[in-house]
Amino acid sequence: MSTMSPTGVGSSAGNPPHSKVAYVRRRAVVLAAVTALVAAVCERDAESVLRRGSDSGIGDAPLDGRIALIPEPQRQRSVSMNGDTLDGAELSLSDYRGRALVVNFWASWCLPCRKETPELVASAKALAARDVELIGVVSKDHGKPQAQAFTRRFELPYPSLWDPDGSMMLGIRPRPIGLPTTLVLDRQHRVAAMVSAPITRTTLLDLVTDAVPVLVTPA
C-alpha cells in the first residue's frame, strides 16, 4: 500500500520520500567535500605552513603556527645549552661556535617523535656535508634507559643531551610549544627557524637553506 509523504510525493512503505533521499545525497556530497578540504589542509603540514616570521612568535609568546622562519633582523639572543649526553659525555653548544646547528627536542614516549626520527636520521649526513651539526635533546623523558633504548632502536648517529626536567627549553626565544620541536640555529646560535611538529627531511633541509644560506651549498 502506498502512502503520501508530507510533500505529496508517494512512497512505498519502508522507503524514504524522494525529498529525503535528495537531502541525504546532498549532505553526503557536502561532507565529502569538507573531508577532502580538511585532508588537503592537513597534507600541507610541515611543507608550507608559515614560512615567515610571525609577530606572535617573537618574544615571550609561543609561535602561532607550526613552522616559522625568522628574518635575520628579528632573531634574538643566542641559545646556550650544556650538559651530559645519554652516553655520559659532556656537550655544550659553545663547542660548535661559528657553525649552524639543528637542535631536535624529543622524548621516547612521544609518538610524533618516533614518526619523525627516521627523517632526522636520513638528514644527518646531508647536514654534515653542509657543515651543519645535528644535536638531540631528550626532554621530560621517563628515564635514561627508555631514551637509550630509543636511540638504539632508531640508530641515532648524533648525540642527545639529557634534559629530564625540560629546563633547556626555558631560555629559548621564540619559546618552543611542545614535542617534537626542531630548531635551526644560525652561526651565532640564534633561532632562525622553528618547527613545532614532526619534521621531514625535505622540510628540514629547505629550512636550513633558507635560514643560513651563507653556509649552505646544495650538492
UniProtKB/TrEMBL annotation:
One of its GO terms (cellular component) is cell envelope. GO terms for molecular function: antioxidant activity; isomerase activity; oxidoreductase activity. Residues 70-213 form the Thioredoxin domain. GO terms for biological process: cytochrome complex assembly. The keyword Nucleotide-binding does not apply. Transmembrane segments: none annotated. InterPro entries: AhpC/TSA, Thioredoxin-like_sf, Thioredoxin_CS, Thioredoxin_domain, Thioredoxin_ResA/DsbE_sf. CDD domains: TlpA_like_family. Its main location: other. PROSITE patterns: THIOREDOXIN_1, THIOREDOXIN_2. Keywords: Cytochrome c-type biogenesis, Disulfide bond, Isomerase, Redox-active center, Signal-anchor, Transmembrane. The keyword Calcium does not apply. It is found in: Cell envelope. This is Thiol-disulfide isomerase/thioredoxin.
